[in-house]
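Inputs:
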Amino acid sequence: MHRIKITEFPPEETRTLELEGPEVRHLQVLRHKIGDIVRVFDGKGVEFEAQILELNAFTATLELREQLENNRETPQPITLAIALLKGDKLADVVRQSTELGVTTIQLLKTQFSDVPDIKGNKLLRLQRIAEEASKQSRRSVTPTVLEPIGIKQLLEVKNGFVAHPESRNTLLERLHWDAPLWIASGPEGGFSPLEVQMLQNKGFTAISLGQRILRAETAPLAMLGAIAATGV
Ligand code: SAM
């Protein structure tokens, strides 16, 4: 069944949903007609089964039927703090980390990143990739991609891990779900010692991902893969 992302559901007592613009075009591209049943979700965790009552070139009316249980999210939201990476590597990380369950991707400007900053259309493209990937993995939460900030600007965390090849701690022996989870991963050139220290001061525990040095685009997926493999 097709899943359509909408901006917002109407107030609780309203059983019909009026759509226009890109949401209607999406229904048309999928060749839907009156009477078809689709799923609609808002990217914030709410999903309904809905029937198309009216559909024309510009607007559509859907009847909201059953609200669907969403049990695809992890026990706490996961934020991936990822250093800016070259080329399309960041797009791959956004796509795959969305499949693996992140709720927020916080881009980080770091000392050894080859890319100093990204904004505008590049940022929008990453957000669109997150939306596509969350649909693909049948999540009803769409991760938010946040514009790059420096490590200094990160707030303190209660449950955070930074991938650091020199550490001997492992993630799985420390993983818990008592607070929102943060994981941080560095650029091709690694985090500087000062950056690792700053992350630790903000509550991140340094962890190893094994004896081999992983590429900057592999390390965050290794962390998220290990978490997903616990069955959450
Ligand atoms: N020359 C860098 C160094 O030795 O730190 C290598 C950086 S690595 C290509 C990019 C990022 O991936 C690192 O900053 C770290 O966050 C993560 N990483 C790669 N391999 C890792 C490992 N075995 N354990 C923990 N983190 C790792």
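The first strand starts at residue 3 and ends at 5. Flag for discussion at group meeting.
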